[in-house]
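Researcher: Here's a chain I'd like modeled. Treat it as a single chain, no partners, no ligands.
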Amino acid sequence: MSFGKLYTTEDNPRSTAIKAVAKANKLDLEFVRTAPDEGVPTEYLKINPLGRIPSFEGADGYVLTECIAIAIYITSQNEKTSLLGKTKQDYASIVRWMSFANSEVISSLAGWFRPLVGRDPYNKKNVEDSMVKATKAVNVLEQHLLINTYLVGERITLADLFTAGIISRGFQYFYDKEWRSKNPSVTRWYETVCNQPIYSEVAGKLNFIDEAIKNQAPASAKKDAPKKEQSKKEAPKPKAKAVEEDDDEEDAPAAPKPKHPLEALPKPTLVLDDWKRKYSNEETREVALPWFWENFKPDEYSLWKIDYKYNDELTQVFMTSNLIGGFFTRLEASRKYIFGCASVYGVKDDSIVQGAFVIRGHEALPAFDVAPDYESYEFTKLDPTKAEDKEFVNDQWSWDKPIEVGGKKYEWADGKVFK
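Model: Modeled as a single isolated chain. Structure tokens:
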């Protein structure tokens, strides 16, 4: 039996979360293609007087407009859902982030991408202003996700599904490889949400772009412009040159990236990339580890055990694995100087995070403090001449043995490699 109709378009970002929760709740929701850009029928204005999308019309005659209200209503049809949080504060925070995405993020992203794809008139200054606003808004998410796996609490909620749908335009048009390296927290979170079945089953496979769309009028707009108008714009060449110079001046003041403190160390004889390739391409215990110990230079590198300080707060294994992945993402600036693995041992609500790293130099701080959350980990220097320390490294890099902590055995559950 049909639950109702959702009036929207196939790729409307405000509707992605609605479709996701409807499918998850097994609601038979009929999608009626409605595109305001193409004009809407008079009957639709009785449902939504402003002619906007999305709109919902229930089988019982109940009509609802505004995307946040519709998303919450559809989600709440499952009384046992965890997508609306556990507490009233959770629920308020979920609404808060949905409102932020719907007001601050999507409007600026729309002002940025729509003129570049020919859906709105192109004006370079307006596009630049929208880009600045979008960047400022998304930076709020970046700072929040720097220390949080999800937007609210320790599991995915409607806030994540909705905001991922909203920000998808950015990843579709602008958030290329360079942007993602500078915004690792939002990238990690977005990739995590996109890979959840509840989201991917309606949004499709995640595909990152390599290069952002350029801030210039779309080809169709240039082609359709009147010839007389074109000649006018092309005539004052000195002025066009001045604009180019202004652009160069904007690029010029960019400060050079500060050098990594470990760069000051002498060039090592053991090239870490050689070890990383060996680890990636050979059997770990049979080939890679013997090679490592044969070539390891204790005067150039040191070995470290890492322990997460707050194991009592860990819940789901996949969330703990995401926590490790987030930490590794934030270590990016030290990638040239570090190799290591960290793993989750145990089960849901009873797990431990441990790992082993080889780093350039003999101090942990210069290598790890590039990650703002490094203080959540304890670093213990290992002695490669001790058999037990050497065995610990082998086990941490092989993922084939349990660990024992406090007299209790924890089986390996999941792991991440930083290389």
